[in-house]
Write a structure and sequence with these properties.
Length: 250
């Protein structure tokens, strides 16, 4: 039986990615997908992009969703092309990545989808997650790229329920509101299985309708591959080189 292998955030960790693919023992008929954030922080952003572009070309289907880091590099490149400068200093890791990226990389970033459907598994691949009660086609791109903690509804001055589409990092939630704000996964009950990255988990978050697979490889943790239809998980520990490169660039 052919498999769909979905890999978490690479963040420039090319050696770990190749080792994880070897561990998955990819066979003819298997398909490989990625949750975005191929670049920044790790030592070989361009190598990761080249690898995924090659896989996508070979498979003949869209194989990677846009991550917030690719989105940010699109913004950087547009600004530089228009003004030949930047309105604010770039994070050093982004400067390092820009030194590696080529024009064809930016062109590919521009074409990346915000989500990929796997109808045979009733699954959707996104980068960060989804806002509850909203069809995937109607999702706000900001949520697909950034969503974390949410409080989906508030009560207005007249006692009426009002939608609140704000998303915050968990650390940014006001202390007096932490009983109302929760990570978006607490509100998602399907029907689709959502496979996502972006938020680092010390172990994969896998339920009937969720698979959170960013293992924080670039932070010295693990790179995960989630396999359908078996719902099995492969992992590869980070190389010291990837972790030390991250700290050397801050």
């Amino acid at each position: 039986m052919s498999r769909d292998i979905i890999i978490g955030d690479l963040h420039g960790c090319l050696e770990e990615t190749k080792a994880l693919l070897d561990k998955c023992k990819v066979m003819p008929g298997d398909r490989i997908f990625f949750v975005g954030d191929l670049v920044d922080r790790g030592p070989n952003s361009a190598g990761c992009v080249d690898l995924v572009m090659e896989i996508e070309k070979k498979q003949g289907i869209r194989s990677c969703v846009l991550g917030n880091h690719e989105s940010k590099h699109i913004e950087h490149e547009h600004e530089f092309r228009n003004t030949n400068t930047f309105s604010r200093p770039l994070p050093h890791t982004h400067v390092v990545t820009r030194g590696q990226l080529r024009p064809e990389h930016y062109a590919w970033f521009e074409s990346m989808p915000l989500y990929i459907r796997l109808p045979e598994h009733n699954a959707i691949i996104v980068h960060a997650g989804v806002f509850p009660y909203v069809p995937i086609e109607a999702q706000n791109s900001h949520h697909l790229l950034h969503i974390q903690s949410i409080c989906p509804w508030n009560t207005d001055d007249y006692g009426n329920i009002a939608w609140n589409t704000t998303t915050l990092w968990p650390s940014k939630v006001p202390a007096n509101e932490r009983d109302r704000w929760m990570f978006w996964t607490n509100f998602w009950n399907g029907p689709e299985l959502v496979v996502f990255g972006h938020s680092v988990f010390d172990r994969p978050l896998v339920t009937e309708h969720l698979a959170g697979i960013d293992g924080g490889a670039v932070f010295g943790m693990k790179l995960h591959a989630f396999v359908l239809p078996e719902r099995t998980m492969f992992q590869r520990s980070a190389n010291v080189r990837c972790f030390t490169f991250l700290h050397a660039t801050y």
